[in-house]
Amino acid sequence: MSSLFEYDKDREAASAAKVRALEALLIKKGVLGSDSVDAVLRHFETVAGPFNGARIVARAWVDPEYKARLLDDTPKAIAELQFPGMTGAEGEHMKAVANSPTVHNLIICTLCSCYPWPVLGLPPYWYKDPVFRSRGVREPRAVLREFGVTIPADKEVKVWDSSAQIRWFVIPERPAHSEHLNEAQLAALITPEAMMGVALVPSAPRA
Amino acid sequence: MFTRFEEYAATQMLGQPDSPPRSEGKLFFSDDWQRTVFGLALALSKEGHFEWEDFRHKLIHAIAAWEEKACTGQATWDYYEHYTQALIDILNQCGLLKPGELEQQMRPDDASK
After folding, report:
1. pLDDT at A186 over 50
2. Has residue A3 got a pLDDT over 80?
3. Any catalytic annotation for residue A109?
4. Which of A106, B2, B46, B85 has the most crowded CB, counting CB atoms within 10 A?
5. B91 to chain A nearest CA, in Å?
6. What are the extents of the domains in chain B?
7. B94 near A CB under 8 A
8. Average pLDDT, chain B
């Protein structure tokens, strides 16, 4: 069908019309509920994703007691924040580790199932790459350098291999000069990569 | 180990030829129809109308067919165009779509819509 349309704009319009018709037809036939599609998408957009992890980390940055609880019993501390999608098994098996002036943490795993989905969302494509994992174990500093993160020689690098039992995520270090930012502004600085340990949180812009 | 179909389904695609476009760890849709069709396939499979792996098989096949055309006569890459076609194929296969039904639905003069 696409060959009928010479321009990308026409292809886009044709695809959009096709999808609209498909959805309308399936709803008309009673195959699909009128809100089924939105319900599924909501999972990715508001229930499970890196926005949850960012909120957890920002809270840990502003509240040292919360940070201590998060490191001590991660699922329990996450439950305190009452995320809609993280009841029961969704929040289980997670464990936070904190970066500090003396330690940098890196999270790896070959098995795609071992990723803290509810807090980080979709893993990046390279996360499943066996090369990333084996090199992450063997030469984490070299892998980190390739990601643009140079760890000083006197700073320890710890590598955490996720499994079905434990899914790790990193509490990055709070950036310098971020005292003027509130919790929501801090959360906006935090990326999934930072919570995997392959990126740092950049210094906040000065007020 | 997954407790949510959505996570299982999206994760099966990672690092595979049918991996969906992403940005900053999130799914990336350049237009609303892409978001809709992504959700359509997931919702239908979640409700048990077809196996997710069967849908993926059609999607991978559609992508491979595009790649084989190389540069000559190859339309520019559009992941969700292949995704849409794969969904239509699987719906035809499992009988949820009858031949000609979608075309009829798309006709602007069809008053029954």
Report:
1. yes
2. no
3. yes
4. A106
5. 10
6. 50-95
7. no
8. 83
Q: Which domains does chain A have, with CATH numbers?
A: 9-44 (no CATH), 50-187 (3.90.330.10)
Mean pLDDT (whole number) for A157-163: 89
Does B48 touch chain A if contact means CB atoms closer than 8 Å? no
The mean pLDDT of B14-32, rounded to a whole number, is 77
Secondary structure letter of residue B71 according to DSSP: S
Residue A51 confidence class, pLDDT cut points 50, 70, 90: confident
Residue pair A35/B103 in contact by the 8 Å Cβ criterion = no
Per-residue 3-state assignment (H helix, E strand, C coil) for A69-132 = HHHHCHHHHHHHCCCCCCCHHHHCCEEEEECCCCEEEEEECCCCCCCCHHHHCCCCHHHHCHHH
Q: How confident is the model at residue B9 (pLDDT cuts 50, 70, 90)?
A: confident
pTM: 0.72
Crossing angle (nearest 10°) for helices A50-62 and A64-72: 120
| A37 and B CB contact within 8 Å | yes
Residue among A205, A186, A203 at smallest CA distance from A55? A186
Q: Which residues of A touch B40 (CB under 8 A)?
A: 19, 22-23, 26, 32, 37
Nearest to A4 by CA among B33, B68, B87, A14: A14
CA nearest to A18, candidates B47, B87, B92: B87
**Measured between CB atoms, does A3 come within 8 Å of chain B?**
yes
A203 carries an active-site annotation: no
Contacts of B36 in chain A (CB under 8 A): 19-20, 23, 37
As a whole number, mean pLDDT of residues A25-45 equals 88
Question: With an 8 Å Cβ cutoff, is B15 touching chain A?
Answer: yes
Looking at residues B24-35, what average pLDDT do you find?
82
